[in-house]
Specification:
With 237 residues, this protein is of the alpha/beta class. The protein has a single domain, classed as 3-Layer(aba) Sandwich (Uracil-DNA Glycosylase, subunit E). The chain is 41% helix and 11% strand. It is built from eight helices and six strands; from the N terminus they run H-H-E-E-H-H-E-H-E-H-E-E-H-H. It has a six-stranded mixed β-sheet with strand order 1-3-2-4-6-5. A hairpin with a 2-residue loop joins strand 5 and strand 6. The protein is globular and about 50 Å long.
């Protein structure tokens, strides 16, 4: 049932044309391709989440990259951010391979699901508050359709804040947010009842090329997530 409902949500996301600015930008990028990809057919549509329908780990990024997910049709696929992220997920046992260049290339996530706060590539990688809010119901429904999730990692301050809003709107059984949202920080861990919310620096080149985010720093977050997932599955003494 979760897989079937997620497929239905995917179809709805892919058909969305709610934000005129984002529709115009994603389609313009798909027409006026980057030279390195001039022989490829760009996706040029909203990018749904993907992964294991039984996932206990959910990752929430900002939005598809113009020449990454907007090209390949899969979030974090075909760009440097995805290379960094999937390598870490592979090292920590959540992915079967360390890289992904296109949808259908054999990458499979185990016990993990990846989504984004905004589903269309935004100009300058900066969605407006209105565009963020228009996309929020999709993340809310993903939360409701992934009942086994126990740990959520918000990648970057934008992904973290969007996840907080989605958790509040989803009203999931056993989930209770603190009265105030803690300030975003890498490695931040917020207990929300049945779910633990983490903050982690986004694996963008601005962070990874400068050393602000290292492989070990991201691995530590996923290792802690694995520890919490195992603890949640252990019977009470």
């Amino acid at each position: 049932m979760p897989a079937r409902n997620l497929r239905a949500l995917t179809e709805e996301i892919v058909a969305c044309r709610a934000c005129p600015r984002l529709v115009a930008w994603r389609e313009s990028v798909a027409r006026d391709k980057r030279a390195a990809y001039r022989d490829e057919e760009y996706w040029g549509r909203p990018v749904p989440g993907f992964g294991d329908p039984q996932a206990r780990l959910l990752l929430v990024g900002l939005a598809p990259a113009a020449h990454g997910g907007n090209r390949t049709g899969r979030v974090f696929t075909g760009d440097r951010s995805g290379d960094f992220l999937f390598a870490s997920l592979h090292r920590c046992g959540f992915a079967n391979r360390a890289e992904s260049v296109r949808a259908g290339d054999g990458l499979a996530l185990a016990d993990a699901y990846v989504a984004a706060a905004v589903r269309c590539a935004p100009p300058a990688n900066k969605p407006t508050p209105e565009e963020r809010d228009a996309c929020l119901p999709y993340l809310v429904r993903e939360l409701q359709l992934l009942p086994r999730v126990r740990v959520i990692v918000g990648l970057g301050a934008f992904g973290y804040a969007a996840t907080w809003s989605a958790l509040r709107a989803a009203a999931l059984a056993g989930v209770e947010l603190p009265a105030r949202r803690p300030r975003f920080a890498h490695g931040l861990e917020v207990g929300c009842g049945a779910i633990t919310l983490f903050g982690a620096f986004h694996p963008s080149q601005q962070n990874t090329f400068t050393g602000r985010l290292t492989p070990g720093m991201l691995d530590d977050v996923f290792a802690r997530a694995r520890q919490l997932i195992r603890a949640s599955a252990s019977p009470a003494p």
